[in-house]
## 1
Amino acid sequence: MDENSSARLKRRLLRIVYCIGLFLAMLTICLPGLWIVLSSLRPTVEIMAKPPIWIPQDISFDAYVAMFSGIGKGGIPVIEYFRNSLIISVTSTVIAVAIGMAGGYAFARYRFRGKSGVFLGLMLTRTVPGIALSLPLFFLYVRLGIIDTHFGLILAYVALNVPFTIWLIDGFFRQVPKDLAEAAQIDGCTRWQAFWQVEFPLAGPGIASAAIFAFLTCWNEFALASQLTRSVSAKTLPVGLLDYTAEFTIDWRGMCALAVVMIIPALTLTFIVQKHLVGGLTSGAVKG
Amino acid sequence: MKGFKPSAPFLLLLPAIIVLAAVVVVPLILSLYSSFTPFRLTKPETFFVFIGLRNYVSILANADFWWAFGRTVLLLTIALNLEMLLGLGLAMLVEKATRGQRLLRTLMMFPMMFSPILVGFQFKFMFNDNIGLVNNALQSLGLTQDAIPWLIEGHLAFIAISIAEIWSSTAIFAILILAGLLAMPKEPIEAARVDGCTPWQTFRYVTWPFVMPFAYIAMTIRSLDVARAYDIVKIMTDGGPAGRTELLWTLVARTAYSDGRMGMANAMAYFSILLSIAFTVYFFNKLAAARTQIGAEW
């Protein structure tokens, strides 16, 4: 065999190995999620079957119907949990983004003493593990009478989200050239007007993705919610998921269905922001 | 802007500072105080008894605590390193793809959308010894006849938890490293190749230094959130069997809410807070160093 064709063969082999590797990697990433979706559609008998039934025989949406038809039928009050999750996540996201915009703008546009120190300080408040923070918050909330309320959880989530929102929004404002706002000011805008009419629209998509990121953090948070909420009036979906395991037997199918309900909003929103998210994180952090 | 320059950023940052002070700093001071008391939820009057460092002393003498601490550090070390390696590998695989890169990137982000609690549940389901996907697959392929007790045997449970943790967080590394690879100028690589570098040398001395800051961003983001392993462990094993997968965070939760020993739990919580802060500060410094290395302009 001459050198040319052996090199070609080697190349083709490498290509095949590469494709297999890529396929396996993607399979590992997707399989667990797909398995949950599939299990939520199968009857419990099939999930529990021994030996396992690999090809689904009987696909139905029973689990979802049962779940949304109220307490008693679905086992747990999913609708209330869903409503709590939505109210808490949306409200705290709006507040966190408003605060984050002010803070991010300050970091992106002003020089002041101790800037990096303040930045690190803000980030450090985020590192406090939820469970460690929940101890004093639990105590305080009981004293203030805001345990097990929407307000209490919203307050906690705003604080949880502010540092990261500032980081992201700081990055997005840095991408907007300073000259634009200055030009607007020369043309007679006040700084306030220049911000809302020039810089804000340009950084808009980035801010939207910071908002979605904050929303997802609230939507998925468990450690704080599990301790600061007690009843149906304030429990969120992640805490509700635990209702299925609290009983002696686990209703795998119902749990899978609830998991799918939780993941769908997260999935949709993440797809929308994926591009901006990476841009915001890297520009804020690399360009310093 | 007229004469009192520092006040504008201060005013802008004020809301953030107020919220964080109210919800994070003040409660933490409170919890620091209560870590010096024998405070129990059932006995409110114990909140005002000062016992100095006795909680800390008894924690330091407690073997269970040290096991949990060591296990937490071990889990973080294994998980972060493997996530980094796998993320790098994944990013390079996707970067090489000629077609369908957008789709691949989207697929790659899939685990990021799962909340840790869902990851925990999902792997609890898959590693179930009786009906789980893993055992079913192993048995159907004829590799084993036994039901492997993934979540029931201590070491296996630790492995299962590590796998869940790695699955959920590799995506962050992969995404950010991929961003680095894509943003990287192509000329240095070509120049290295022309100068006769082997692929390994090209990677080691050209690609890697460029990508490193991005890896550290990922590390920093991850270290802001290391404690989310709590959610995974809580739902997968709840620290069991017999405390074999107890992490610092589950131990804190158990001491505080099941045993009601708040003072003791707060003292433990301070160890977990210091651990998190140490991780974050370490990676922030690494990030700064890597950034100066490649030049601030880029």
## 2
Amino acid sequence: MPLSALTGTKLRDRRLAAGLRQADVAARAGISASYLNLIEHNRRKVTPEVIERLADALQIDRGALTEGREAALVEDLRAAAARGGTDAEVERVEDFVDRFPGWAALIAALDARGRALERAVEALNDRMTHDPHLSQSLHELLSSLSAVRATAAILAETPDLEPEWALRFHRNLHQDSERLAAGAEALVGFLDAGQGIEEQGIAAPQEEVEDWLRSRSWVIPDADLAGGLEEEIGHLASTAARSLLRAHVARARDDAALLPEAVFAEALAEIGPDPVALAEHFGTSPLVAMRRLGGIGGVPTGLVTCDGSGTLTFRKPATGFPLPRFGSACPLWPLYAALGRPMQLFEARVQMAGQSDRRHRVIAWAETRHPQGLRGPELREAAMLILPDDGAGPVLPLGSSCRVCARGDCPARREPSILAAEGIA
Amino acid sequence: MAKHVLLIEDEPNIAEAIRFLLTRDGLRVSHAPEGDTALVMLRQDPPDLVILDHMLPGMSGLEILTAVRADPQCRDLPVMMLTARGRDREMAEEAGADCFMTKPFSNAEILAEVRAMLSQPRRAV
């Protein structure tokens, strides 16, 4: 399985920093100096075995050669290409990032800005369509404007207008211009009010909440939860995001009441990050244990949750396990198997497409609820915990989402990928 | 004999301006500010043309239009609708409106459309 071409640049930097010659490193790694030269100039991709040997030769961790800011940039550009169509030379994205990092960063930033603006347009459009106050205000403005236009035209275009009619139309014109001014002022006041312009496009509400959680490293101490965090919630830009975060904090507080920080940490140290065993230990639901595992410090976990439609409602990423920001995720995720069969545990060792040297252990579980009783709708919620690999068992190949997944022979593919197909490792 | 236009419009100043324009053009204009009154007037003094605002208090313009088209006595009346929103046009068309004017309309446009509609033969029932 080839690794990222960016590895070459990092390899060269680390070799030069160590003051070593190509020939020496090549000899230690058991490859030819000319092959190493090609690798360092990103003209050959390298297998995990070779990269392991090169890392050993340089006495560095293999991860130092395969991760970093550039990898994130590559992912951003791939996602941008997926959104923008198939004309971009996606297969050369790593080379592009390596050779023109400034331009690459600029494209990624422009793509992010473009998406923000698209969301702003969508939000404004939605608001224009569904906001009854706005619709009514615009109707009143148009009516006033129609009256002004018709009356003014009569005054301007009727030279023989009788004085009493002229007086009447002048009075009407004055009334309508006053009404127009008041209507415009009210409309501007409405748009400038609490749910103002800033709400319209900075980020989708879910992203705003996730950005806030990311700024806290996804951890909210129990003491903060107890305080309600109202002041911090109030700083979020949109009403919808504040509502989502308030609900998240309330649920996290309920979870913390069931599994308090101190005793949960003790149990975790004793049992390990096994949400089912932890749930048994505390006599609670595995979903609660999974959320607690995803929300405490010191455990390198990712966590995704979805509702009955499969829509991702929470996305805490794990290193090497990219999560889709838009659209649907990979249908092979055990999350969806769990969603289809609630109260049944799904566990798998998985490998993401494009992450040839990294595997994860995922655990998925779903539950049903009937908040309106027997005759009300059944609601489902599923969660998938993403843990570091424990090295045991066969590997299930997965992707992030079809558009940015290169697995050519995937039986679950629902749309073509923008990436060149690769075999399943 | 002057042709008769029934204007159904709740904005008094718009109604006054249209009424002035059409009267000056030799038409007889009656005015109803809402739907119930308009439906009574339609039967008591059938017009040759109806000018109907879309957004009205009580019955909407579409509801009035539906009632007109369902009434054998007046279902073939030509109806011009005044709309403030472009997407209302499709619904009005489905309900059977013959002509649309989008606010803010010009006096010349509305006058030209009224003349054109009144010069056409009444459509078959």
